[in-house]
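Feature request disguised as a bug report, sorry. It would help if multi-protein outputs had a clear separator. Right now it looks like this:
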Amino acid sequence: MQESDNFIAEQLLLMCAGAISDSLSTDIAIEYSKNTLLNEMPDEPQWVDGSGLSRYNLFTPRSVVWLWERLLKDYGKERLLPLLATSGVNGTLKNYYKAEVPYIFGKTGTLSNNHSLSGYLITKSGRMLIFSLMNNNYPTQSYPIKKKMEKILWQVRENY
């Protein structure tokens, strides 16, 4: 997940549909996932594709945090963190959140006038926090938004 590939994400969803049914339909995989894997999610998602490029995909920050909690519980940080973009090191976080020791591990999502970041933050005291920041409908480029998010997350890192 360090580098996003929306085409592969869509193909994986189709392959999941093929594994649980006799059809390659994203709708089948999405409904199955919502009813079994995500049935305890706090807010029901509106989910229409696997690529993440549709503006009709709607997940709340609370549900995204729930998903990160679930992944951590099911797979553990030793297995999960190396898969994620890492602050100042690789992926979409390579040029942001730089520190001597990386402290953000997560996933970004960007469409025009929308930018999100969620994942894990390791504080200076060693605590692991789960977060989800979503910004939408801003009338500017994403760079100033990313810099403000960086400032907020740095403050959390330093003070918790």
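(second protein starts here, but nothing in the output says so)
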Amino acid sequence: MNQGPWQGKLLVANLRGQQLLAMTFNENGTVVNTVESYLKNEYGRLREVIQGKDGSIYLTTSNRDGRGNPDINDDKIIQLIPK
């Protein structure tokens, strides 16, 4: 990411882990230095993460129950706004 508190970090949506991971790497980009976890078990399975032009982070969830009965906790688009 190139703006806000996520600058210089790789953000990864994690389906099974139900979290957003923020990773930093060494200078060469070949070794992971740190891994931070955000939103653990707050929104369910996170499928995609992208950054908007304003620095906001957008996440999509993947929580469909598979039975065709939409629920309030099913798939969403979540916006994280940098401070």
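Even a blank line would do. Unrelated, but nice: The chain has a mean pLDDT of 87.
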